[in-house]
Amino acid sequence: MRCSFCGKRENEVKKLIAGPRVNICEECVGLCVAMSREEGIHSNLD
Asked: What is the structure's pLDDT at 1?
C-alpha cells in the first residue's frame, strides 16, 4: 500500500490510514492540518 498523496510506501511511514479507495500517511495528515490552520479552518477548535 502507498499514500495516495505523497506516494510513500507503508514501510516508509509510521502510520498509513486506509480508506475504501484512498490511503493517507501521518505526514500528509500533518501537512493538511497545518495548511488548514494557516487558512483559519480549525480556528474554532483550538
From this structure: 94
pLDDT of 8 reads 98
d(CA 12, CA 8): 6
- Provide the 10 A C-beta neighbour count for residue 1: 10
Instruction: Give this prediction's pTM.
Output: 0.76
Which positions of the chain have pLDDT values less than 50?
none
Q: Which residues contact 10 (CB under 8 A, 6 or more apart)?
A: 1, 2, 16
Domain ranges of the chain: 1-46
Q: Of 32, 30, 29, 27, which Cα lies nearest the Cα of 13?
A: 27
| Beta-bridge mates of residue 24 | 17
